[in-house]
């Protein structure tokens, strides 16, 4: 039995926040030039919690769009899996809130792999479908990054946006044109200290001191993460090509995690992927963590950049450290 992506959907909050918000409204010591030249980000969408825009809200909207694309109802799903690091609340999972909001049944759980959540989760969901444990899985990458950002920290708060992207993963016959191919997933827990939220778990519960130091918010050593991101993505994709007996010419579209335009372009150049085959959305939506690849995929489809039979390459790097590469053959 094989698994394929058979539909996609996305959700971005309406509230658009330009770079000027950070230096004009928040008064941070940053500038349009710094943000655009160092990251490629021009604008991003941020959720409005006062209107109920939480992670599960965005996940539900993306899943609804995906169901519409598939021509299916929520009751047709066997499972809902959400890759996220920004749940509505510590317990229960975003997937359970999403299941209730959709009116779906079956099992539901979250998966934590930060910016690698989509690539990790795609592999987990494909394996469940290939093994016959589920026939139809709604897999959503959703992150409400603005809920874990320190808006006094110019090193991190300018980098992220909020979004959800969904894919339907289904069992398909062997002669179906679409396939989710094997992945390579990697992790190195020694990288934890370079990109983390130090408090809010068992090690350092929230108290007044934690809040004062904003230890419950994202901390990143950007330069260290940048260096690891480029070299790890290049290495894992080269290894993937070798294992799967592919060359860069077999790839029709490269959809990398959107952390920094310079990371994407450096990796694409080293891998010799031409610009026209590289999907970049960071300029419009910033880094949306687990949502960046599935939303970029859905946007690329809408823009007519994904054709039946195309081989798509996903590659990612994020907190953990976690990273990986995967390809799918497009069947729609
Ligand atoms: O998706 C999860 C994985 N995350 C990533 O892959 C992110 C990887 N890292 C990056 O994308 C980049 O490292 C950043 C965009 C975060 C930073 O860019 P950089 O070119 O690596 O800058 P830097 O951290 O080396 O900082 C250079 C200077 C520093 O000042 P000094 O020490 O040279 O005086 C920073 O304090 O830029 C300063 N800086 C800023 N200046 C204006 C840092 N943030 C800002 C800012 N505006 N927003």
Task: Walk me through the structure.
With 332 residues, the chain is α/β, with parallel strands linked by helices. The protein folds into 2 domains: 2-172, 3-Layer(aba) Sandwich (Peroxisomal Thiolase, Chain A, domain 1); 179-329, Thiolase/Chalcone synthase (Peroxisomal Thiolase, Chain A, domain 1), CATH 3.40.47. It contains 10 helices and 13 strands. The chain has helices at residues 20-25, 32-39, 55-70, 94-102, 117-130, 208-213, 222-244, 261-271, 282-285, 292-302; strands at 2-11, 16-18, 43-45, 79-83, 107-111, 136-144, 162-172, 179-187, 195-196, 219-220, 253-256, 311-318, 322-329. The strands form 4 sheets. Strands 1-7-6-4-5 form a 5-stranded mixed sheet, with helices on both faces. Strands 8-13-12-11 form a 4-stranded mixed sheet, sandwiched between helices. A two-stranded antiparallel ribbon has the order 2-3. Helix 4 links the parallel strand 4 (79-83) and strand 5. Helix 3 (55-70) packs across helix 4 and helix 7 (222-244) runs parallel beside helix 8. It is globular, with a radius of gyration of 19 Å. It starts with a strand and ends with a strand. It binds oxa(dethia)-CoA (UT7). Oxa(dethia)-CoA is lined by residues 30, 34-35, 38-39, 115, 154-155, 158, 222-223, 225-226, 229, 259-260, 263, 287, 318.
